[in-house]
Amino acid sequence: MNVGESFNMAITAIMSNKLRSSLTLLGIIIGVMTIIAMQSLITGLRNSVHEELSQLGSNVFQVQKYPAIGEGNREKYRNRKDLTVEHADAVRRLATAAELVGAEVWHFGREIRYQDKKTNPNMVIAGATPEFLVNNGFTLADGRFVTEQDVNFNRRVCILGLEPVNVLFPYDDPIGKDVKIEGERFRVVGVLEEMGSFLGGSRDNRIVIPISRFELLYGSERSINITVKAKSPELFETCRDQTIGILRAVRKVPPGEENDFEIWTSDQLMEFFDNMTRVVKIVAVAIASIALVVAGVGIMNIMLVSVTERTREIGIRKSIGAKRRDILWQFLIEAIVLSEIGGIIGIFIGLGIGKLVEVLTPVPADVPAWTVVLGLVFCSTVGLIFGVGPATKAARMDPIEALRYE
Amino acid sequence: MLIELHDIEKIYEIGTVQVPALKGINITVNKNEYVAIMGPSGSGKSTLMNIVGCLDTPSDGIYMLNDNNVSDMSDDELAEIRNREIGFVFQTFNLLPRASALHNVELPLIYNGTPAAKRRKQAEEALERVGLADRMHHKPNELSGGQRQRVAIARALVNSPSIILADEPTGNLDSRTGEEIMEIFEDLHDSGNTIILVTHEEYIAEHSDRIIRLRDGMVERDEAVMERSA
Ligand SMILES: Nc1ncnc2c1ncn2[C@@H]1O[C@H](COP(=O)(O)OP(=O)(O)OP(=O)(O)O)[C@@H](O)[C@H]1O
Ligand SMILES: [Mg+2]
Question: Does A351 touch chain B (CB under 8 A)?
Fold first, then answer.
């Protein structure tokens, strides 16, 4: 007897007991669904984080007062000296391995105006030096960027992201026009290329002004970010070491004490993200495994009931020549098919959840093919492991006793 | 010699009690014989048939089938004998309730690996032979008792076995339907099959060439049937 026959028998048996079969499938469905949905979310999230981070210019690292992520204990960092434009200047002057050293500082949730129009109060104002453009992986669509002279002379110039352009200049060319930021006039000298959104947040709501003017506008008592681009990938580490040395010197950190600033690269952030999601993944796999084991026990139970109920059928099959292995395979394949059906349903629901999340939230869905394959293999294994007992019981039945069974 | 039974004994053990069902049976059956087994209830007829049909094994004694010692065989070898050499017809039909008549008849062929197309053709032929060509796709519960028994007979003969065993094949049927079934057996006998049949009815037994009467697990009488005058 071949597998095709066993498969047909399995389908027939499962279909003739739909309710019971579907109840049994629930555990498998939940297990596989969890794996697929989690994988979809995590991979989707990872991809967009990765995309976001790779926006940061290549070979670039950042220096900040606070760590970029994690570590709830901000007390520890609050007493640190602020990073200032002077610190950035020192690095620019002294770090021989650095190609571009930028200083930047941000102010969120502002509103800007042009004539009678105004934007939503969700604009992000960046104070920047000329290196900002390259170090942040931004590009200009039109006009020019902040220049050294703009910074030196505290010029009131600005470069607009796509969003304020669309709101304030739906018909006109913005270049050369004057917009109002915090009531002060700024001449628009450039427009940024469209950036798209990241996890639902727009990245086109930025307005860049010279950092010197920024500090006049908002005060200079906030810590800046320093962005450093190394001359080459080979010099990245050297550049980082130089920057640390220079900053320690200008900030007068005593030898032996730890840095009073944080350096991070996109790789580090990626690594942090992966570590964080790894925990989520492990938890998801654990939940799924428990669900699958419970499902497996359910399948075993239902198969045992089924074997007992079908004792006569087994007797009939044996009486006309079914061998032990024929019966064994029949029930084993039934268990596997049963769990595979659950697995396939689980995969589709999992994919559906991923899609739903994609529609409702900014997290995109992305299910790698290997997860689907793994899910199916998992199901077969569950079916196999928990089906062996009942199938063996069926195969070992004595034909005449099975026939007599009432 | 097709079937040789030497001192066959069967003892059932229920707890500590031993129930002897067969107490030393010696029978030989030749090819193309038509044998009826009779005897009172509990005399061991079914027990004997199950042993001859390789469904059960004797507690003692030797059973030679086609000069092979069945007592030495493994479960799987017995399964193969049941599949190739023996067609069993039960009093209670023993059809798979959810499968069509055709599928029921195909079953023995599934287990010996006959390819699907050939299998179907053979099963159809067997059903035609028992006069059920028009009921192939009916499930057992859509058939009358007589029709069910015909399906069971078609299943028994689909693999062209050398022996057809029938344990009270007409026991659940009225006498007219029983007669029809008996005609099929006669037919099979005429075309060269060996038939062993258990029955309680003299008129059924008279279809055979030879009647073996059992009592208390022993052969009471074994005699040829007089040629009927009809
Ligand atoms: N599985 C079993 N366990 C215990 N005893 C059994 C079993 N099967 C049969 N017997 C006993 O063996 C004896 C023979 O039974 P068997 O079924 O062969 O009789 P039979 O001649 O076929 O009777 P009937 O005409 O009623 O079918 C009986 O005494 C019965 O009680
Ligand atoms: Mg009986």
Answer: no
